Amino acid sequence: MNLWVVSILSFLYSRVEHCWETLFSIRHQPATDRYRDITSDPRSGELIAESDDPQMILRSRAWIPGWYMLEATVLHATAARESRLYLNEGQGYTDENSVSLPIKNGRVSKRIVHVAKSGTRLRFDPVDAPGNFSVEHLRLILLTPGFARDRIRKRVMRLHHDFRGMSLEGVSRRMEAEYHGHGYSTPQQWLMACYAETFHNRRGQGDYQAWIAVNEMPVAEETLARKPLISILVPVYRPEPGHFRACIESVLAQSYRNLELCLVDDASGDEALTEVLEEYRLRDDRVRVAVHERNQHISHTSNTALEMASGDFIALLDHDDVLAPQALYFMAQAINKAPEAMVFYSDEDKLDEKGRRHDPHFKSGWNPDLLLSQNYLSHLGVYSTSLVRQSGGFRAGYEGSQDHDLALRVTRDLSASQIVHIPRVLYHWRAGEGSTALDSGAKDYTSQAGLKAVRDYVAQASLPASVTLGSLPNTYRVTWPVRGRPLVSLIVPTRDGVDILKPCVEALLERTSYTHFELLILDNQSTCEKTLTFMQEVSQRDSRVRVLQWNHPFNYSAINNFGVSESCGEIIGLINNDIEPINADWLDEMVGQVQREEIGCVGAKLYYPNNTVQHAGVILGIGGVAGHAHKYFHRTESGYFSRLMLTQNLSAVTAACLLVRREVFEAVGGLNEAHLAVAFNDVDFCLKVREAGYRNLWTPLAELYHHESVSRGQDDNPEKQARAQREVSYMLQTWGEQLTTDPYYNPNLTLVHEDFSLR
Fold first, then answer.
1. Cβ atoms of 469 and 451 closer than 8 Å
2. Which long-range contacts (CB under 8 A, 24 or more apart) does 285-290 make?
3. Which own/partner contact pairs does 353-360 have at CB distance under 8 Å and 24+ positions apart?
4. How many CB atoms lie within 10 A of CB 14?
5. How far apart are CA 596 and CA 614, in angstroms?
6. Which residues of the chain fall short of a pLDDT of 70?
7. Over the stretch 711-734, which tens digit does the pLDDT of each residue have?
8. Contact, 358 vs 350, CB < 8 A?
9. DSSP assignment letter at 279
């Protein structure tokens, strides 16, 4: 490229950046021709979105055609999840000519945008939910076409479900060969459509309706070798007539016919209801009816239905809820595939007052610590009849959470292979006025009953733990106290960077109530005099601190393996040098959890300095290898079905703050220093621990700040990028399908975003 071309491009870059950045005075109110539904908070200076569609019409000269990198940083404490840029090419601002940009709360989000026509005008919609927000950074950078297309192909290769794992050449060849069959005029059109799909965040009601249309076509039913009789237990007490009929009809319309419906009226005293019960009993000989002479409440009523049941399995159904048409078929199919299993459960959604489906709950696979925190099994639950009877059935005194109590008791002695999750929406929960489906706090007695159930589970299993109510309705906190006084070795690798190391070390020493730990600072060739002076001073001041030298090129795995070999504790804590505890009992919480024999790695809840979530556990497959659950959610948000607030099992946790028993660390060979010097070594380690038979666990009750990757820097040169690609390839080759079948996630949820939106 000759000098004058370079000069012209440099001029265009400078003009574009200048033009864009003059639109916004960063951290202050942007300059625009007009706001819509945006005001300014006189106290904080922040902007306020007064609707879910605030708009900024940008004042600027018109844009020239070309490829641009859109960069935006939006900070908010709302339910917002995306910004949107509209391009007006002369036909006005339309959704069809706009691009979405998922918000990484307080972090830079990027997307390549193509301006096709001269004179294009722009509008920026910063958030999609009402509340306070600020635009911290916003600019548009002109790109060369080759660079833009290369970046687009790489994102499609890494994130699009049709091209994951393919090479760049493979993506291009397939685009060239198949674009017409997919309804596109050129390969470029298909590429851009796929690129756009990797940004689309499917989380709205309209998205769920579209998901239903695509994913719930009737399935051709195979002939089953075993057709177990399934008895559906329905305790009945003064239901709304139309809802009750819909409930019964959904059972009798099941494609799987080997069922019986056990209806027990708990002395409703309603003649119309009695007539309905008799009508259905006479219409279908699979319907069995009993009536209590006096009201005995739901546990006794469910036990009456259980006594009536003659099936091999029972299914639990509330008197106003609805089963999906093939619900029992999928249950019977699962029973055939896993003949040793005794508990089956499915995903579910809700029905509003007009019968419209919404709020789908796509659940984790078997997750025993999550079940202690919340009854996530719930609906549709199918249980071995003999197992339920052996456990004593439904217990009086647990009304409102009798199904949680039952689930805890029947699963206590089962192996993971005996509990099967079916990732299909098979149950529609009626969200009527006053129901827990509509408002989990509507019936406080259910929380108290659930608390009693979890406490009883802990007592019956002789577990050294205490149980209290969680921070949200119908959630519970199980506290595992530290047994004895084990020495914990906190291992902190560092190189220079006293400005981050000193706050980390001082906070660990001063804001940690569990004091029986040693702190090993692993110095990886520091040259900064201030850093060296601080390390010497703190090691002399506090006898718990030791400084060890690691005089080799940076290798995160090798440094930590060395630290473990030099440590004395029976519990190992891998800690980044940019971590700062928030709650003083963070280490008590993590030590209590990691002392449990069945638990391998324990991870913490980490925040960016702006109080958005950096780490809430690792989900396999997101972004190609693994991503962080609920990343960029605000600290106050409860997350997907409260999971940001609940202790639970996960496949992996980050080594930025990870505890593990020494015996477990050594049994799996520590971190992989040969193949994973920088990235994914913690994910690989956790998967090795899981393979060894342990459950990994994440707790939201150990909270710390994390200034992520400040010391390591970014993979921003060819050598680092090549190393990063080698580490990705190693993970894909080593763990294969496990990276796209995380048992603690759900196959119906996205592998692009970290927010549990639809796939």
1. yes
2. 286/252, 286/259, 286/260, 286/261, 287/248, 287/252, 287/260, 287/261, 287/263, 288/260, 288/261, 288/262, 288/263, 289/263, 289/264, 289/265, 290/262, 290/263, 290/264, 290/265
3. 353/431, 353/432, 353/433, 357/208, 357/209, 357/212, 357/428, 358/205, 358/208, 358/431, 359/431, 360/208, 360/211, 360/425, 360/748, 360/758
4. 11
5. 26
6. 1-34, 58-62, 204-205, 432-443, 708-717
7. 444 555 678 778 888 999 999 999
8. yes
9. H
* CA atoms of 70 and 83, how far apart (whole Å): 11
| Straight-line distance from the first to the last Cα atom of the chain, in angstroms, rounded to the nearest whole number | 43
Say which residue the tokens 């509330």 belong to: 318
Compute φ and ψ for 234, nearest 5 degrees: -130, 100
Q: What is the dihedral of CA 258, 264, 268, 269, to 10 degrees?
A: 90
**Could you report the per-residue pLDDT of 134-156, keeping only the tens digit for each?**
888 888 899 999 999 889 988 88
**722 in Cβ contact with 592 (< 8 Å):** no
- Give the CA distances from residue 594 to residues 481, 597, 602, 651, 665, in Å, rounded to whole numbers and listed in that order: 11, 8, 6, 15, 12
Asked if residue 704 lies in contact with residue 604, where contact means CB atoms within 8 angstroms, the answer is: yes
Tally the C-alpha atoms within 13 A of residue 341's C-alpha that lie toward its C-beta.
21
CA angle 514, 519, 525 (to 5 degrees): 160
| CB-based contact 146:132 (threshold 8 Å) | no
What is the rounded distance in angstroms from the CA atom of residue 518 to the CA atom of residue 567?
8
Residue 678: CB atoms within 10 A of its CB come to 16
User: What are the residues facing 128 on neighbouring strands?
Assistant: none
- Specify whether the CB–CB gap between 560 and 491 falls below 8 A: yes
pTM (predicted TM-score): 0.86
CB 271 within 8 A of CB 219: no
CA 366 to chain centroid: 15
